[in-house]
Amino acid sequence: MEITELHWTSQSAYPILAALQLLPLLAMLLIMIVRKRKRLSLIAAGFAVVELLLAVDLYRHFDSTQAAMQLGEYLPLLPILGYHVAADGMTVLFMLLTALLSLMVVLYTQARHLPGLDRYLAIVFAVEASLQSLFATQDLLWFTLLSAVQLNLVAYLLKGWSNAPHEEMALQRYLQFMATGLLLLGAGLVMLGWNYAVANDGQWNFDLHRLAGVPIPGAIQTVIFFLLFYGLGIRIPVFPLHGWLPSIAEHGTVAVAGVFLLGLKVGIYGLLRFVFPLLPDAVMQWHVWVVAFALAGIFYAAILALMQTNLRRLLAFAVVSHTSLLIIGLFTLSTEAFQGSLMLSVNFGLATAGLLFMSSVVYRRTRTLTLSRLGGLFDSLPVIGVAFLIAGLSIIGMPGTPGFDAAHLVLEAAIQEFGALTTIAAALGNVAAAAFLLWAFQRAFLAPLDESTQKHHIDPATGMERTIAIMMILILLGTGFYSEPWLQLIEHSFEGLSSQYQHIHTGTMELMPH
Question: Which one of 278, 313, 329 terminates a domain?
Answer without folding.
Answer: 278
